[in-house]
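ugh ok fine here u go
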Amino acid sequence: MSEEAEQQQAAEYIAYLYDQASALRQYIDTLQKNLAEVLESLEAVRASKSAVDEIGKENQEYLLFGDRKGNIVFKVNSVDKNKVLIHLGLNYYAEVDPQAAKKILDDREQQLAEVSKNIQGELSKSIDAYNQIAEILSQVQGKKGE
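structure:
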């Protein structure tokens, strides 16, 4: 193989590695966003479980947020301690006793923790692959400079 052909092949391989690194970077960004969403959902489930635990306490005043941003908050003195509404998915809710709600929330927490673990594993593998490609590209760049 001629030197020119070898240089052409090397250039194509470098371009291929660069494309792979770019694709991995996008994939890593997507995984990080997905992980952040899952962790946010996990925290919301834990907060909901804590709220269910608070229902059983006597003589408590509750704050009910009118929206997600807290633009309006209602003080509530009386809450039915025997029933809660729990979101089942899509636009479905069920009225259940607090213990059933805790069971549903425990299951949801376990599912989200498993999803988080899987995403973190995939993220770790992707970052390792990206770093390996970046190292190769860095070495190639260093050899070009010599």
